[in-house]
Every structure is written in C-alpha cells, then in structure tokens.
Structure prediction request, 685 residues.
Amino acid sequence: MRKFTFILMALFVATIAKAQNDYTKSLNGIQWVKIESKTDIVIKTHSSNELLIKSGPEIKTPERAKGLKLVGEGGTDNTNVGFSVVQDGNTLIVYNLRKSKGAEIHLPASQNIAVKSTWNGDIEIDGFSGEIEADAQLNGGIKIHNVNGPVTANSLNGQLEVVFGKVKQDSPISLYSTNGAVDVSLPSNTPANLALSTLNGNVYTDFEVKAEDKDGLKSVLGRNIKASINGGGVKISMKSTNGNMYLRKK
Amino acid sequence: MEKNHVFDQIPDYLDGNLSKSDRAAFEKHVEQCTDCQKELEEMKTFFNVFEEEVPTPSNRLKTKFEAALEQEKNNQGKVVQMESKPSANWTSNVLKIAASIALLVAAFQMGSLFQQRKANEDIAQLQDETNQMKQTAMLSLMENQSASKRIQGVNYIEEFEQPDAAIIQALANRLLYDENDNVRMTAFEALAKFTSSETVKNTYIEALEQEKNPSIQVAIIQALVQIQEKKAAEPMKKLLEKEDTQPFIKDQIRAVLPSIT
Amino acid sequence: METLSDEMIMQKVSEGNLDLLKELFDRHHKHVYNFLYKMSGDQMLAEDLTQDVFYKLIKYRNSYNNGVFLSWMFTIARNSLKTHYTRNHKSHDDMEVLAYKAVEEENDVSENNAHLQYALSQLDPYDRELVILNRYKEIKYDDLAEIMGSTPGAVKTRVCRILKKLKNIYLESI
Prediction:
C-alpha cells in the first residue's frame, strides 16, 4: 500500500513537472463545468477530456505567505494556480480565487459550461458545441464565438456578442443584457423563431424582418419584434433593456 | 434456372414482404417457370379464400364487452391519473420528458383518428391526459440542470390556455428562485399573460422586493403599473431608497409612482 | 406514425384509462373472433371465447409488459381456447389433442369457407394455429415466434410448408 502511494505520488509529481505547473483534472463523469471569476476569463477548446488551467505568468506570492495557501470566497487554492476546483455530483466547480490576473481554461469542445463573472472580468468563449451559460454580473462583457448553442447569456453593463456556427435546434437560446449592446451573428440559413425586444434601444438587422434601412442594417421600429426566419425553428430570444440590438447574417 | 423454384418465397411475395431486389428476381423466375406460375396462382386463390370474411360476431359481443368495461370502471373507482414528481436524478427526467413528448405527439395524431369514431368521451379523456402529459413535461423541464431546458419548460406555457394552479406556482417559483437571470426573465414574461391571477400579482410584488437584475425589475414595474396594482407602491419606494438601484430604474419609478398612489 | 399504436393505447389502459380499451376492441375483436372460429369451427364458441379474451384484457391490464400487443392478445386467446378444451374434454390439457369439429351444418357459412375449415381440420393443432396466425399480416414472424415459443427462422420455414400443404388439401377438396 505504501509502495502504491509512493508510485502515485511519483506520477503526480511527474505530471506536474511535465505540464509546467498547468493544472489538469479529468472530466470523467462530469456533465457541467461551472466557472466563477472576478477577472477576465478565456475559455478555449482542446482535444483531451480534462480541465486544464494555464498557470499564466508567475504570480508573486508575498514573502510572508510562504507555506500558506491562498484563500478566497470560493474556497482554498487546491490547484497551485490560484483556483479552487471542487466536484459536486456531476458538476465541477471552478473558482478563480485571484482578484487581478486573468486566466485561460481549456476544455473539450462538447463540454457544457456555465461561466459567471462577478466583477469586471470579461468572458470569452470560443469553439464549443455543448451548452453554454454565461453571466457577466457587473461590468464584464461576454464574447462567445463559433458555438452551436444552446446559449443562455446575460450581462449587466458589458456588451454581449455571440457568433454562431450551425445552430442546434433542440433547445432555446436566450441572450439578454440590461445596459450593453446585444450583437448576434447567425448563418443566414438558420431556421429560427426570433423574439427581439428592447425598451430604450433600437434593433438593427439584415434578416428579413420588416423595417426601414439605416446604414445597411435595418432599424426595426417597434420594440417587441417576433419573426420567423427560414421557415421557423428554434426559439432565439434577444433582449436589451437600454442597449441596441444587432442581428447579423454571417 | 428451372431447378431453382421459388415456392418458398410465394407467401412472402403475395404478402408483399420481399425486398425490391428479391421481388424482381422472383418475378423474373416465375415468368419462365410454369411450375412456379401454377403454384403462385393456386396460392393466390387460396389466400383469397383465407381472407374471405368468416361470419362476423354478433352485436351481443360488443354490448357485453362494454357492460363488462363499465363494471370494471365502477370497481376501479375514480380514474387514477399518473402524477410524476420530478425526481432528483435528472437523466431519468430527460427520459421521462422524451417519453411524455413521444406520447404527446402520438396523442395529437390520434385526435384525428378518433374524431371519425363516435368516441367523444375518449377525446375528452385524451385531451385531459394530453394536458396532464404536457404539464408533467413542463414541470420536469423546469427542474432541469440546464438553463436552456428550463427556459424551454417555461416557454411551454404557450401550450396552455388555462394553466392550472400548479403550473402558475411552478412559474412563480422560477421567477422568484431560479439562479439564472434569463430563466427568471422568461418566467416573468410567461406570467405576464395571467396578471389577473392573485398568485401572479403577489409573485410580481414579492419578486420586485428581491430581484437584483434591473431588466427584470423594470419589466415587473411596468407590468404592475399597467394593472394599476396599488400594493406595488411599497416595494417601489424601497427600491428608490436603495443605493445600488440603477438610476434608470429610479427614474422609471419616479415617473410611474404617482399613477398608482 | 399514422395512428397511435396498440402498444401505446394498451400502456394507457394499464395506467387506468379503461375507455381506451374500446379502441382496441374495435380494432381487434374480429381478428380474435376469426382466429377462434378458424381454430374451433364453432361460431358460438368463438364468440364466447372472444368475450373471454377481452374480459381478460380488462382484468389483467396491469400485467401488460409493453411487449407486442398482438402477441399478448393472441397468447391470451390461445390460453382461453386451451382452458376451454381442458374443461370440456376431461383428461386432456394439451392443444395437441384439441378436438376439431367440422362445421358443414352452419348454414350461413359460405362453401369456400366450409372447404377451408375442412382443410384446416386436416392439420395438427399446432400447425393450424401457426398458419391462422400467420395470415394476419400484422403479426410478424418475430411476434409469431414469440407467441408460439419458437424462433422466427423455424416459424417461417414451417409456415411455408404448412401453407403449401393446406393449399393442396383445400384444392383437392373442391
């Protein structure tokens, strides 16, 4: 038993050495990865079925903190890269404990992801085919590129930008912002039922939604627009209370 | 070729069970084989006889069956409806939903068949069950781990003209307690059609007291003003006093407050 | 899917919606009657036993296990027939010894039918049953194998052979 533990330790150390202090964790049995951060967070795809957190530039640990662990709201640094990673049932909860540095996280493309930014952090997500939930609760913006949906995203003050590849039809898409612009690009042949609404902003689109021209895109009068494109399909709901809305053909 | 008789395939041929290629080969053979032609003709005649209607059972059969059915229904007492509680395991929920939806689709398609029959009570019954199934599907979707699926569940409200209390309550719970802003907003919109309900009014007022998302706050304020809900004045005043309330919400409240007080 | 399948309806019945049994009755009581009539050659008996089959569907609805409905229904029909003969024929409890009554005396039976009944009577009971069930196109070889406790391949070969035999008996008799 002791020998086994020793081998395990050796392997562990070897892994760390090989990955140059990046943190990895297997995603076997994980349905959702929930990420929470106060700072910028970039999420990219990679080909292995594991969570990888890039260590990023060296963080200076204060001299006094030697031998101590970083502790934050979300828990204790159990990764040595300033994150707390805890499994809860089929969900993996990933907290960025640092308050200043951004982070880069890699996940397999089919992973379901929920990301929350609680302060100024921007959220960037690129290339995923699973479900995506993104919530920028204060000043952060959200950029989600090359995804297939379903996407559920909400921002308060930052802008919300989503560029879709082929849009999955099985579950609704919901993109809301209070003060930011909502800017969405769809392949022009996407079948969808659109619901666009804004209280104080305007809606611009080059999809066939009745409107008058304005700088190439059309400004749609009326603030609750419902329209089917390409024969109707998955429900896509976009709303900005005070910002403008841009819906583009890709 | 002559030797390769196709006797064994004759029944399948007549029943239309042969694949396209087998069928072509079969016909090619029969064309040039008198034995098989004869056999085919004979079998065809025989099949026709077999399919000839035998004497039909008397009406007595149906009458007695229906009497027996009625009796059994009385013994059974009230029809027990299935009511499934959303289970903790959401994969099983998904299966349940899939099953419900399959049944739903089937039940809709069945509608037209039944109209031709004089089974009006069955239609009524089926309608009930369809609603029941929709409701079950809706309620379990709303418990899903995925926000998109919860939104899908909330959107299901469009299927109901007169949703019962359980559905309204479930939507109210989404508005009050869902952790996802988009789900709460969608639940708000779903409830907006039913503002004549006391439950909905009270839910809106309660939501206004605790909601943090300004978009939802302003939407609720507008809805409450539209129905001239006097009880909305208190939570609005509180929002005015709060520091972290967004300026445009405060403006909105100042603009509408006089109209309901 | 054009209409709701038998299986779905029976599923609803087993969940308590008894009224839907009417639909199944409308769809299938003639098949059951036909089967029982061809097996027994006795109209009155066929009618009584058909009645019995549907009583059993009502009574045993909870034991329906989501299998192929026709298989289940015909299994019940076979058992009813078996039970009937067991009761009325003293010591025999096997389909193999199912006595067969010719039906020439039934005056509303067409001549063709009489010949068919005669031809059927020349088969042994297992073969007779197999071939009668096979003539309902809704029953696939897989289901037939399930009802008869055999394999689809064996059932298919056998049905082919019996049909040929039966046809020859029939044609000789007219």
